Amino acid sequence: MVNHRYLGSSGLKVSEITYGNWLTHGSQVENDTATACVRAALDAGITTFDTADAYANTAAETVLGAALAGERRASLEILTKVYWPTGPKGPNDSGLSRKHIMESIDGSLTRLRTDYVDLYQAHRYDTETPLTETMQAFADVVRQGKALYIGVSEWTAEQLRAGHALSTELGFQLVSNQPQYSMLWRVIEPEVVPAARELGMSQIVWSPVAQGVLTGKYAPGQPVPAGTRATDAKGGASTIKRFLTDDVLTRVQGLRPIADELGLTLAQLAVAWVLQNDNVAAALIGASRPEQVAENVKASGVTIPRELLDRIDAVLGDAVEADAALTAAHAPTTRPS
């Protein structure tokens, strides 16, 4: 069964393997299959489910809400996000303005079939809305009982500190950040993680298997397999392409002896690796088949000895990206439309 960890310095526990439905529910897989994946997650002991209003333009929330219907609400942690465009994508259908936040939380609650979410997250930093306006809106969402905790996603260390200071002043606390993090993508380690530790915040990390590259299914010098993330024109292909070089793929194959030594698959090794970071509360996993969930949860509770962590670093070498500036560089500079 899946272990649980505290989220930041709060009293909330989340499953260290968290089920996320980006790029799957409402888009890549049929609803019946999506529901089967959610049932597999519940059967494996996963209690935490992460989504966002923008995933499949709100359809992912609807599918997740239906899949969780009938479950004891107090036994679940439901996470969603706000920022990216939704609906008809009008001038106020994105960002972190008070208008968009207050309207979006109500829409998310309706689609998720719940009176509250456990964690409501700023999906990116909004450069066009005063941070005070955003944080006041989040404070009101908490006071209204529509969200129990507030988090963010892909914020820089400086933004975390500014947001945390305002949240404390307004009587609530930012408890988490949701960044990309994997053996290959470590840009949060130099600045974001130290700031989060200082502020009592955890990471809920997405793409621990680097969009599937760390599963080993992409072979150097070979065409990408049909039906994989690399062929998904709806978003998967654009996010994975940075890793699809022969050098990276060769190095990933070099991790197999380490995974074998631990009795893990490459995917399980990748998920277990991010969980070795004590600032990581949860690793987000997605699935297009129920059996993928059952396999990924085997990474929970795994301890990777220091010697093997060092061997992983040696195998991956300069294929690892750890430039702290990339968090800001990949952030939107204007509100999306």
TrEMBL record:
Keywords of the record: NADP, Oxidoreductase
Residue ranges crossing the lipid bilayer per the database entry: none
Cell wall biogenesis/degradation recorded as keyword: no
InterPro entries according to UniProt: K_chnl_volt-dep_bsu_KCNAB-rel, NAD(P)_OxRdtase_dom_sf, NADP_OxRdtase_dom
Occurrences of domain NADP-dependent oxidoreductase (ranges): 16-315
Listed GO MF terms: oxidoreductase activity
Family: Belongs to the shaker potassium channel beta subunit family.
Name of this chain's protein: Aldo/keto reductase family protein
Provenance organism: Pengzhenrongella sicca
